[in-house]
Design a protein that fits this description.
Layout: H1 3-12, E1 15-23, H2 29-39, H3 45-57, H4 70-77, E2 85-90, E3 94-100, H5 108-115, E4 120-126, H6 133-144, E5 149-155, H7 164-180, E6 186-190, H8 214-220, E7 234-235, E8 238-240, E9 252-256, E10 261-263, E11 267-271, E12 275-284, E13 287-289, E14 291-293, E15 297-302, E16 313-316, E17 323-333, E18 339-340, E19 344-349, E20 352-366, E21 371-374, E22 378-379, E23 384-396, E24 408-412, E25 419-425
Parallel strand pairs: 1-3, 1-4, 4-5, 5-6
Antiparallel strand pairs: 2-3, 7-16, 8-9, 9-15, 10-14, 11-12, 11-16, 12-13, 12-15, 17-23, 17-25, 18-22, 19-20, 19-24, 20-21, 20-23, 24-25
Helix pairs in contact: 5-6
Length: about 450
């Protein structure tokens, strides 16, 4: 067996952790990411040589590991639109997909993209500056997106003489704030990304700290990809009807199982129509199976010929979500143009896109004290707030706390297709009271 084959088999038995990094400008996020990649031996030789050469040309004796991720910064300086950069690396204990999100305030919306599928978020704080508004915003986004694990990396400890009181004060303030948002697990780690303290190797200069390094925590934090325990949901993406001599009567509904599992013989409901039937076959990769789990892509066949099209949702008959045209949600506004009451939008939920109107914006979140600013009238870029949207057609949504896939949606500008807002249905932060929606008259609506 070759070394390459052994390495491939080893990786196949390790778990995968998706995590996102966030931090204010100059908090050292690029250096931390570079340090993780370098010290985990995930940097190619030619990449490291290029960094060393660039560092020497700047008069630096040691390689500047931030240059490993400086491609994004260079693009931003050229005025190119920046999105989340994904990086892959692995250790013998675990594989990682890192969503590296920009630190500027105007790019906070990109953290929504990076953290939407993450099981863990690393929030960087400069030990000299402590918790700032952007730190609170990142914590709020992580809580809003139900990221189960948050790491507070208090960076640049070398610039505060590795003092324990400086770390303890920041950790206490951030933990209290994050817990008030309902973040279930917070781990604070004092680090110096530049010197490598507590990033991969334990620091001899902070012997007062007895917890894990950043990489050790990433390697050992429990993660679960078990979507089979969730409510079974199957958004229909495409209807397959070959109508050939070989398959004259074949009718299948193709898509990716969003959550749970489907079995042959199971009674199902098709939403929003409410029609019922029974699963007669499940086709996967050209062969029939008796059961299929998320996130597998399959084709489901039913006992009855039902009018089903793209955007419909198949669910177990005894566990179907409620259907509604009034969507109440917490949103993060990501577009430069504001979102206003009365605005016409498109709402995209799984594979279904419908016309909608912003019926109300009951409140906007104030990050300083987590208070709700009532009736702001509109949301601007990076705002987090409550909205009520009226759709032209009924939708089958779950609470976001129950299902990230079927509890989320996008609001889209019908004029140019630009994404305006990312929404999460149901309760927002576990410990924050929901504002009461103002009473409205349905007679005002055109649909």
């Amino acid at each position: 067996m070759t070394a390459l084959t052994q390495h491939a088999e080893q990786l196949s038995t390790t778990t995968l952790l998706r995590f996102a990094t966030a931090g204010s400008v100059d908090d050292g996020k690029s250096t931390l990411v570079g340090r993780l990649l370098h010290d985990s031996k995930s940097v190619l030789t030619d990449q490291l040589e290029a960094v060393e050469h660039a560092s020497r040309s700047r008069g630096q004796e040691a390689p500047d590991l931030a240059l490993l991720t400086d491609g994004l910064r260079a693009e931003r300086e050229q005025g190119i639109t920046i999105d989340v950069a994904y990086r892959y690396f692995a250790t013998p204990r675990r594989r990682f997909i890192l969503a590296d999100t920009p630190g500027h305030v105007q790019y906070t919306r990109n953290m929504v993209t990076g953290a939407s599928t993450a099981e863990l978020a690393v929030v960087l704080v400069d030990a000299r500056n402590g918790v700032v508004e952007q730190t609170r915003r990142h914590a709020a986004v992580a809580a809003l997106l139900r990221v189960p694990h948050v790491v507070l990396a208090v960076n640049k400890m070398d610039l505060v003489d590795y003092a324990e009181p400086a770390f303890a004060a920041i950790a206490e303030e951030f933990t209290a704030y994050a817990e008030s948002l309902g973040v279930p697990e917070i781990t604070a780690i004092p680090i110096s990304a530049l010197a490598g303290d507590n990033v991969v190797e334990p620091s001899s200069r902070m012997d007062w700290y007895g917890g894990p390094t950043v990489l050790e925590h990433l390697e050992t934090v429990p993660v679960s990809h078990d979507l089979t325990a969730c409510h079974a949901r199957f958004p229909v993406q495409y209807v397959i009807r070959p109508q050939t001599a070989e398959h004259p009567d074949y009718r299948g509904y193709a898509g990716q199982i969003a959550a749970g599992a489907f079995r042959v013989g199971e009674s199902i409901t098709v939403l929003p129509s409410g029609r019922t039937s029974t699963v007669t076959a499940i086709d996967a990769l050209g062969e029939s199976v008796d059961i299929a789990w998320a996130p597998r892509s399959v084709t489901i066949r039913l006992a009855d010929d039902i009018d089903i099209s793209r955007g419909d949702l198949i669910a177990p008959a005894d566990d179907a979500p409620a259907v509604t045209r009034d969507v109440e949600a917490t949103v993060c506004h990501v577009a430069d143009q504001p979102l206003a009451v009365g605005q016409r939008v498109l709402l995209k939920h799984t594979t279904r896109t419908v016309k909608a109107i912003v019926k109300d914006i009951p409140s906007r979140l104030t990050l300083d004290d987590l208070s709700q600013h009532p009736a702001p009238g509109r949301l601007v870029a990076n705002d987090i707030g409550q909205v009520v949207v009226r759709t032209a057609e009924p939708l089958a949504l779950d609470a976001y706390a129950d299902s990230r896939r079927t509890g989320s949606f996008l609001l889209i500008d019908p004029a140019d297709g630009a994404t305006l807002t990312a929404g999460m249905t149901g309760a927002s932060f576990a410990a924050v009271a929901e504002p009461e929606a103002a009473a409205t008259d349905d007679a005002e609506w055109n649909f």
